[in-house]
Design brief:
Blueprint (H helix, E strand, L loop, with lengths): L10 H12 L2 H13 L6 H26 L3 H46 L20 H10 L4 H17 L2 H27 L4 H9 L9 H14 L6 H6 L8 H29 L8 H14 L5 H34 L5 H19 L15 H32 L2 H11 L6 H30 L14 H22 L10
Helix pairs in contact: 1-7, 1-11, 1-13, 2-9, 2-11, 2-12, 3-9, 3-11, 3-17, 4-5, 4-6, 4-13, 4-14, 4-15, 4-18, 5-12, 6-7, 6-13, 6-14, 7-11, 7-13, 8-11, 9-17, 11-12, 13-14, 15-17, 15-18
The structure holds phenylalanine (PHE).
The site of phenylalanine has 15 residues, from helix 1, helix 2, helix 9 and helix 13.
């Protein structure tokens, strides 16, 4: 049975939705954290190489797959390689589901910080978290750790889930309506923050630092690994998000043109976000810590708190910006899962699938928000939820994403006929792709991804032990192993089960 498939009302609606997915927390805070960690100006060269060698080709591939199969990832890969392809597709979707869960938890915390902005967050007298000595933590840090160790934070997470459900409820129609307001507004808010940042005394120095190339670090493979992972995450690649969104496009859409617009919008936003954050931090001589969440919840807020005036206003602006950008990304994750389930079980009906996805997803998000304090000294993550989040993020971000990207390239480049895919894409694209694209998909991208996976395996798991085993977990030393097994069980076991389930849509998939 084929069900009526949603379609975007306009090309603009699609571009806004796809760039809304791409522009998220990754652009506003994770990019700056990575850029700082990997030598600021030095990061741009690997970053642009990653954009053209990995980002753009995979974006074109994912858009092409969705557009001409008109299916989400598992079904579209099934058309290419039968059940093996479908399995790979579900593996991607289930990894994306884990990201959805913790991404929404992070957004819930951002809502908590926004609420705090109206009360005590920006006042200097916050009580130090966990009973640590005053002076160990700055104000936003104390506020953050106190907040995430309270049970009522779970309500914020539930609220963000409710918002996501409303936005995906009517599919493309409601998503399009929201992104048309949020995406332009995000640019406006970002520009206000940049203007504030660069006009601060000393702000321009941060900008210079961001653009002063430091070629010496470029021989470090870790910088390259960082740039490639950042590119996957920031462009929402690897999970079939873009495949799902493109499956709602008319058959004659221009993949190369669309991919270029999305990449351009995303990377320029990231670029200007870097200007805002670096200028703000350097104006106040704050050394940005490389951890991405600390950048979001206390490094940038510390900079804002030092503004000469309108601290509260800019603080609110910053958290509203994060929430808007995060929401247009999280709905794409939620929609990819809903579409995949609906493609496989068209009889289930959208409403029921939305409810099921929300129930499962919210359970996961609540686990990641679990406020139980397991590390009072804050030597690692503090709460159980944050530790779980940190460990799952490691597996999904460092490995899941990469493996999915690799599988897509291998399936299209080696198992299926890459010339056919190329012909499909060229048929409707304004810029025609040639042999270089084939070489990228068949050799270069897989080689890079294998390098990144191998690098992570060797430098973390082999040299330092399974991720998380060095954390302070007050007696729960088995937790990292449980998380590792949980990730494998959920993503691999789940993909196996879902592929095995009766395919109720077989004739509709032709
Ligand atoms: N691209 C989003 C960001 O930059 C995150 C994301 C990753 C969204 C993967 C969907 C899929 O924040």
């Amino acid at each position: 049975m084929t069900v009526e498939r949603g379609t975007w009302r306009s090309k603009l609606g699609f571009i806004l939705a796809a760039s809304g997915s791409a522009i998220g927390l990754g652009n506003i805070v994770f990019f700056s954290a990575n850029a700082y960690k990997f030598g600021a100006g030095a990061f741009y060269v690997p970053y642009f190489v990653a954009l053209f060698v990995i980002g753009l080709p995979i974006m074109i591939l994912e858009l092409g797959l969705g557009r001409f199969t008109r299916r989400s990832l598992p079904e579209s890969l099934r058309m290419i390689d039968g059940p093996r392809g479908e399995f790979a597709g579900w593996f991607g979707i289930l990894n994306a589901t884990i990201i959805t869960m913790y991404y929404i938890t992070i957004l819930g915390w951002a809502v908590g910080m926004l609420v705090g902005s109206f009360s005590s967050l920006w006042q200097p007298s916050a009580v130090p978290a966990f009973g640590l000595d005053a002076g160990v933590l700055n104000n936003s840090m104390s506020y953050f750790f106190n907040m995430i160790s309270e049970y009522n934070t779970i309500a914020f997470v539930a609220l963000v889930w409710a918002l996501n459900m409303v936005v995906v409820f009517w599919g493309t129609r409601s998503i399009e309506a929201v992104v048309k307001i949020f995406v332009p507004l995000m640019w406006v808010f970002m520009i206000v923050l940049i203007l504030r940042g660069v006009t601060l005394p000393g702000g321009m120095q941060g900008v210079f630092l961001l653009f002063t190339p430091n070629f010496s670090v470029m021989s470090d493979p870790e910088v390259w690994q960082g740039a490639f992972s950042q590119m996957f995450f920031t462009l929402s690649l690897g999970f079939g998000i873009m495949t799902t969104y493109a499956s709602y496009l008319p058959k004659d859409s221009d993949d190369v043109g669309n991919a270029s617009s999305i990449c351009f919008m995303n990377c320029s936003f990231e670029f200007i976000a870097g200007l805002a954050i670096f200028s703000l931090l350097f104006a106040f001589a704050i050394a940005p810590k490389a951890s991405t969440l600390s950048m979001m919840f206390f490094v940038v807020p510390e900079g804002i708190a030092a503004f000469p005036f309108a601290v509260k206003l800019f603080g609110i602006l910053f958290f509203v910006l994060l929430i808007m950008a995060g929401l247009t990304s999280s709905v794409s994750l939620v929609e990819a899962l809903i579409a995949a389930v609906l493609d496989k079980f068209p009889h289930a009906g959208r409403k029921r699938v939305v409810a099921l996805v929300a129930a499962i997803g919210m359970t996961g998000s609540i686990a990641f928000a679990w406020p139980m304090v397991i590390d009072k000294g804050l030597a690692s993550d503090g709460t159980l939820g944050l530790s779980l989040l940190d460990m799952f993020d490691h597996w999904v971000f460092q490995y899941g994403l990469m493996i999915c990207g690799l599988l897509e390239c291998v399936l299209v480049g080696w198992v299926y006929d890459v010339d056919k895919v190329l012909a499909h894409i060229n048929e409707t694209s304004s810029i025609k792709l040639g042999g270089k694209f084939k070489v990228l998909i068949r050799y270069i991208v897989p080689a890079i991804i294998i390098f990144v996976i191998g690098w992570n395996l060797i430098t973390q798991e082999l040299m330092q032990g399974l991720y998380g085993t060095s954390f302070e977990l007050s007696g729960a030393n088995w937790l990292p192993w449980l998380v590792f097994a949980g990730w494998l069980g959920f993503a691999l076991g789940g993909a196996f089960l879902l592929t095995r389930l009766t395919d109720t849509n077989s004739e509709g998939a032709a």
